[in-house]
């Protein structure tokens, strides 16, 4: 393992650094990555953010985004950068399978691997780990890494603050989840003081939808929402034909599951969508209901207690049927 003192010493000299995050990056993934990027470049490091796949357009405004390489579009260049790296920062994931084909490239690299993450059950591939499942976002941990572990709070400038604020805001559902503690709000206050303009960030992330996305949302709520009152559960099921009809792009399904969860009686909400080669599930829950348990046990996934995801290669009809058959197992927790 790499000790903190050794890592700090490495970072006193310019290094070739790769930052990566999980496939289909969300606000916390890109906010963490670009926040760390904007910190490291201030010290003269050669830094490259490599995203395994594309990500939503509503995240493309963040400072440093123009320098991001998407692995699926620049495979050879990405492989060379990973092979030549001195340090690889792995943010918002803790299993190399989460970065798809990049996983083996990172595993085989001679670079020191630094994991910063808040998900359960990390894989043992890293040399240094800053990990806390109680953190509301990886961006919170990146703030802690810079400000407290590396003792460089003064280098959290407006660009760093803007990215980290985005990560915390999105992964905490706009500061609504139970793990949004007073400590999180103090971090957010520091980020605002450092130049993160909170209202503008909110506008850029949440108020930048196109017409198709809004019509797709209306279709989901009007035609695809099913309530199962005996289990206090709501399901939104979307087929491939709907994805094509509304020209759904990466990120357009983000947050739709929360509309189902917003119904007063609902404790568990599921968004189940048919993609090209698999069916994906996004689960959200209230209180102490373990959404991650369902994803881990039945749908090759996992996540947090109140926000989890999974997938299946079965048909959409079969996945929905399986999900409904699982609910009686959790009935006591759902109706309490």
Description:
- It is a single chain.
- The chain is an alpha/beta fold.
- The chain has 2 domains: 4-206, inorganic pyrophosphatase (n-terminal core) (Alpha-Beta Complex), CATH 3.90.1640; 211-335, Diaminopimelate Epimerase, Chain A, domain 1 (Roll).
- It is built from 14 helices and 12 strands.
- The strands form 2 sheets. The chain has a 6-stranded parallel beta sheet with strand order 3-2-1-4-5-6, with helices on both faces. It has a 6-stranded mixed beta sheet with strand order 7-8-9-10-12-11.
- The protein is globular and about 60 Å long.
- The relative contact order is 0.10.
Strand-residue fraction?
15-25%
Average predicted local confidence, pLDDT: 96
Taken together, the total number of domains comes to 2
CATH topology title of the largest domain: inorganic pyrophosphatase (n-terminal core)
List segments where confidence is low: pLDDT < 50 over at least 5 consecutive residues.
none
Query: Which structural class should the secondary elements be placed in?
Result: alpha/beta
* The CATH homologous superfamily of the largest domain: inorganic pyrophosphatase (n-terminal core)
Strand arrangement within the widest β-sheet reads 3-2-1-4-5-6
Specify the helix fraction band: 25-40%
Number of strands: 12
